[in-house]
Design brief:
Elements lengths: L1 H11 L1 H93 L7 H92 L6 E4 L2 E5 H4 L9 H20 L6 E8 L13 H18 L7 E5 L12 H7 L1 E8 L1
Parallel strand pairs: 3-4
Antiparallel strand pairs: 1-2, 2-5, 3-5
Helix pairs in contact: 2-3, 3-5, 5-6
């Protein structure tokens, strides 16, 4: 009869094991998604800062381009003015030469032509003065045109430099994102290796306990191992088990490099039967108090407080949806999970 009872219990344990496997798979997926979201957040923050610099560079490029177009328009106007003045100068010089020829043809011995010669001489002098002024204007405009071309050259160089900085910034952003992803992947890989070593150590230490199980990436202690019913004070027997866990954690702190940010998350869970006492108005308070009690006990063993996170989940994350005493017992638990800080 006892043999038949044991076989019946073994058969009824298949389904909870399957649920544990599914829960483990779900938690692994959630962990990977959390890492991916975290990586995207840091990358987004870095890219946001670079985009601000790029926007500032693009604004400067737009201003330089507008100034360059304005200077080029001014250059075109100056060249048109120079062309017009050059044509006027050419006409004045041609008229001057014509007057000189007329004076030469008139002859110096014609007395009756003196007045006419005087008039032509005065007109010639006026034309020569106009030619000198035009020449001075042309020289000045040429100087201004040369200065303007120098400014245009400087603006083109500044524009080219801005475009080069823009290209270099985009290249640095892409390289930064790649290196960030590689660094995050390496951190996850390193933490996974230390987690495997830590769990291997705990399996050896707790191998003789049937009420402590490994579920995926978590160690699960049934609440009865550590606490009395409805209480958050660690029992004497529970203290011995937590002390074993503390020894493994202290060894782990020495082995993991300081640049790897890790924590041991302590999750308290209850069954769904309500509790309402002056100390614990709900299962939330009870589960949180138990997680905190375990964390304090580990700190007393020498574990660094900044490596511990205590959380209470109440009855809201059961691993067995049933209403039997066995289901309630399975749901009353403390879970330990080594994860990234």
């Amino acid at each position: 009869m006892a043999s038949y009872g044991r076989r019946n219990i073994e058969r009824t344990n298949y389904w909870p094991g399957f649920v544990d496997a599914l829960s483990s798979l779900l938690l692994v997926i959630m962990f990977l998604l959390s890492l991916f979201v975290l990586a995207q957040f840091f990358l987004g923050q870095e890219i946001l800062g670079k985009d601000t610099a790029l926007s500032r560079l693009n604004s400067q490029i737009a201003e330089l381009t507008e100034l360059l177009q304005l200077e080029r328009a001014n250059s075109d106007d100056l060249e048109s003015t120079i062309s017009s003045l050059s044509a006027t100068l050419s006409g004045a010089e041609a008229e001057r030469d014509s007057l000189r020829q007329q004076m030469s043809g008139v002859g110096g011995g014609l007395a009756d032509k003196d007045s006419q010669i005087a008039g032509l001489t005065a007109e010639l002098a006026a034309q020569e003065e106009l030619s000198s002024e035009a020449s001075a204007m042309v020289a000045l405009l040429n100087q201004q045109l040369a200065a303007l071309r120098t400014q245009i050259g400087a603006l083109e160089q500044a524009l080219e430099a801005s475009e080069t900085r823009d290209t270099e910034s985009r290249t640095r952003i892409a390289d930064l994102g790649r290196r960030l992803n590689l660094a995050l992947a390496q951190r996850v890989q390193d933490l996974s290796r230390y987690r495997s070593d830590f769990f291997g150590r705990l399996r050896e230490i707790l191998a003789d306990r049937s009420d402590v199980r490994v579920v995926g990436d978590r160690f699960v202690f049934q609440s009865e191992v550590l606490f009395s019913a409805g209480q958050a004070n660690i029992s004497e027997q529970g203290g011995e088990e937590i002390a074993k866990l503390g020894e493994a954690l202290l060894q782990l702190e020495k082995e993991i490099p300081p640049e790897i940010n890790w924590v041991l998350r302590i999750d308290g869970h209850t069954d769904r039967r309500p509790i309402a006492t002056s100390q614990f108005p709900s299962n939330w308070e009870l589960s949180a108090a138990r997680a905190i009690a375990v964390a304090k006990y580990l700190v007393a063993q020498g574990v660094s407080p900044n490596r511990l996170v205590a959380a209470g989940f109440g009855e809201f994350t059961p691993i067995d949806p049933g209403d039997s005493e066995e289901a309630y017992r399975r749901n009353r638990r403390i879970e330990f999970k080594l994860t990234e800080g």
